[in-house]
């Protein structure tokens, strides 16, 4: 059943993006055990954290229909459970793009986002971020978040009630996207929560759909020439923004309950005993007290979490 495909993707300009090889084996072996079911009889699934010990044979034909079915299968195993997806579009009917029906699941409601940032940060684990780019549905399951508390939080952009054009989304209704630039070339994606100036940073995703599109997005700014692995596509806040084409110009201040190109869908709840709580990453300069606050949340033993930032 295993087929490896290799396809060069145009990343814009005269820079040729690197390629990324995926196979049935490679995709299955990187799925988190908390969001997938091991295929009965498969010897290609290995324990998390171990290397894949058996290399699949190279196929002689690129079968894109098969790849699309594989990604749909992965997504259904990861987030759907017993739920039946609904066929939706902006008009409420089938979304027909390039002759293909895009099947969307139920969106997270306004009530879901209307929670304090700590509660929301934990509740977002297991939910699905969806981005529609050039008619391609890209999605990933949230596996790592951080909470920012607004006024009293010295690491928050809205510390002491600071309100500027940049921080405006943090004061908008819960469920508003806050996408800002860092280092002049990368972006981070946050979701506003209940409470003025409060939000949740989405740190990492487990890729579900649109792998090739993710690779093209990631390769636009990569310096390394090594092919990307599946778990490297979205394992960090700026990486996931590259993979999902999230920029300040295109995705800031969007109502995630209403947008036609960027939203969150109901995923799979993560049991409380599998939610790890720790201090946030990269805010040591704000002082020991707030640097050590337990405001980071992630799925236990998940390989799709942050490795290093910024993405290179």
Which oligomerization state do the chains in this entry correspond to? single chain
Average pLDDT rating: 74
Low-confidence spans: pLDDT under 50, at least 5 residues? 1-31, 37-99
- Principal-axes geometry comes out as globular
Q: How far is it from the N-terminal to the C-terminal residue, by CA?
A: 34 Å
Percentage of residues in strands = 15-25%
Helix content: 10-25%
Largest sheet: 8 strands, antiparallel
- Count of alpha and pi helical runs: 8
Number of strands: 10
Along the chain, the helix and strand elements come as: HHEEHHEEEEEHHHEEHE
Secondary-structure content class:
alpha+beta
* CA gyration radius, whole angstroms: 19 Å
Describe the structure in your own words.
Residues 1-31 and 37-99 have low confidence and may be disordered. Strands 3, 4, 5, 6, 7, 8, 9 and 10 form an 8-stranded antiparallel beta sheet that branches. A two-stranded antiparallel sheet has the order 1-2. The protein has 312 residues and is α+β, with helices and mostly antiparallel strands. It is 19% helix and 20% strand. The longest helix has 17 residues, at 64-80. The two termini are 34 Å apart. The protein contains 8 helices and 10 strands.
């Amino acid at each position: 059943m295993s087929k490896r495909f290799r396809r060069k993707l145009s990343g814009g300009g005269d820079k040729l993006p690197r390629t990324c090889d995926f196979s049935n084996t490679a995709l299955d072996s990187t799925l988190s055990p908390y969001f997938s079911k091991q295929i009965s009889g498969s010897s290609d699934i290995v324990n998390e954290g171990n290397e894949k010990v058996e290399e699949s044979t190279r196929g002689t034909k690129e079968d894109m229909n098969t790849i699309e079915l594989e990604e749909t299968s992965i997504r259904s195993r990861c987030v759907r459970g017993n739920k039946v997806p609904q066929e939706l579009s902006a008009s409420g009917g089938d979304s027909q793009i390039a002759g293909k029906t895009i099947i969307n699941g139920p969106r997270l409601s306004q009530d879901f986002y209307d929670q304090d940032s700590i509660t929301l940060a934990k509740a977002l684990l297991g939910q699905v971020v969806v981005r529609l780019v050039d008619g391609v549905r890209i999605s990933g399951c949230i596996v790592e978040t951080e909470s920012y508390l607004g006024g009293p939080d010295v690491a928050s952009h809205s510390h002491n009630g600071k309100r500027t054009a940049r921080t405006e989304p943090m004061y908008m209704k819960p469920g508003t996207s806050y996408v800002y630039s860092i280092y002049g070339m990368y972006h981070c994606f946050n979701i506003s929560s209940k409470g003025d100036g409060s939000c949740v940073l989405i740190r990492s995703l487990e890729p579900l759909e649109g792998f090739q599109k993710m690779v093209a997005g990631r390769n636009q700014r990569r310096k390394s020439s090594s092919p990307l692995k599946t778990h490297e596509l979205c394992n960090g806040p700026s990486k996931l923004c590259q993979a999902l084409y999230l920029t300040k110009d295109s995705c800031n201040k969007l109502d995630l309950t209403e947008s036609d190109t960027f939203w969150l869908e109901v995923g799979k709840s993560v049991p409380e005993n599998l939610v790890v709580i720790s201090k946030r990453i990269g805010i040591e300069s704000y002082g020991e007290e707030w640097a050590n606050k337990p405001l980071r949340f992630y799925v236990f033993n998940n390989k799709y979490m942050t490795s290093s930032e910024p993405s290179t």
